[in-house]
Each structure stands twice: as structure tokens, then as C-alpha cells.
Design brief:
The chain has 169 residues and is an alpha+beta fold. The protein contains five helices and six strands; from the N terminus they run E-E-H-E-E-E-H-E-H-H-H.
């Protein structure tokens, strides 16, 4: 399983990004604490502002966590069907397997194509950062858009595309 995770923090008029390891987190509170710890180790001012965590796994799904100051985190996951195969998706959604079981793609009748993703969470979390709800959902559901491409579009609209691209290399 290949998982990319990076937290981006805004300080003054610029964003900086740091790749992080989510393998030891047990819940969304651990994720938020890790985001704050990593950012504050680099910049104590940024740890008090807006932080965006972007997660992408195996070109299967993506997740975004937003933390503003000391507010509760906002979370969006592009496809809840991955919760069983990716424990970090369950952590982000804090489901512990409590989501309704998604239809198995092999059980889907019709064309034989994989059904559209089943996004969950707060799709408005990036409204003020250039990606309104309808655009985020469209990036999730648009055929041919890989999760990494969707995150690149979000990073570009928010103003941290260069930092995102530098970490993805």
C-alpha cells in the first residue's frame, strides 16, 4: 500500500508543505495532533492558522483534512468504499467499520464498469480556498481524474501547487 500524506500550512502570504507518516495514528484527534506538531516544529505561527492535510493512496482515493486554529477538523474522503482496505481512510472518517457496506463492484449489474466513488465528509471545507463544494465533488466523480490529479487541482487553486509538486516528486 502506497500512501502519500502531506500537511500544508499558511504563514503570512505563503504556504509550506511537509510530508508526514500517518501509520501510527489511531483516530482523527491523533491526525490533528500530528499536523499541529509537525507544523509547529517548523513554524509556530503557522500552527495557529489554517492547515490542510492531503492524503492519496494507490491512485484509489484521496482525503483532505482541514484544521483552522483550534477548531474541530473538517474531513472529506473521496470514496468510502476503501475503508475496509485502507485503515487510514477509516481513521479519517472515524468509522471503525460503521459505514454502510458499499456495493461490491463485482456485484454491480450493467456495463461491468466500476461504480462511481462514494464521497463522504464535509465537501465545503475548501470553499474559501478556491475549490467550492460542487468543484470538489466534480473532481471526485469525474471519470479519468486520478486522486493525485484532483489533489493537484486543489493545491493549485489554494495557492500551494509548487509546494505540493515538490513533495510529490
Amino acid at each position: 500500500m502506497s500512501i502519500f500524506a502531506a500537511v500544508f500550512a499558511r504563514s503570512a502570504d505563503d504556504w509550506s508543505g511537509i510530508e508526514i507518516d500517518l501509520s501510527d495514528v489511531g483516530g482523527i484527534d491523533d491526525v490533528v495532533d500530528l499536523m499541529r506538531d509537525v507544523v509547529s516544529a517548523r513554524d509556530t505561527v503557522a500552527a495557529e492558522g489554517t492547515m490542510i492535510l492531503m492524503v492519496e493512496a494507490d491512485d484509489e482515493w484521496f482525503g483532505i483534512v482541514r484544521v483552522d486554529d483550534h477548531a474541530n477538523p473538517q474531513v472529506f474522503v473521496s470514496d468510502t468504499r476503501v475503508v475496509d482496505g485502507y485503515p487510514i481512510a477509516a481513521v479519517l472518517l472515524e468509522t471503525d467499520g460503521q459505514l454502510e457496506e458499499a456495493e461490491d463492484p463485482e456485484d454491480a449489474e450493467g456495463t461491468g464498469q466500476t461504480p462511481y466513488p462514494d464521497p463522504a465528509g464535509d465537501s465545503t471545507l475548501l470553499d474559501d480556498l478556491g475549490t467550492p463544494e460542487e468543484d470538489l465533488v466534480a473532481l471526485t466523480l469525474r471519470e479519468g481524474v486520478l486522486p493525485a490529479d484532483a489533489l493537484a487541482a486543489v493545491a493549485d487553486r489554494a495557492g500551494f501547487a509548487d509546494s505540493f509538486d515538490a513533495l510529490r516528486i
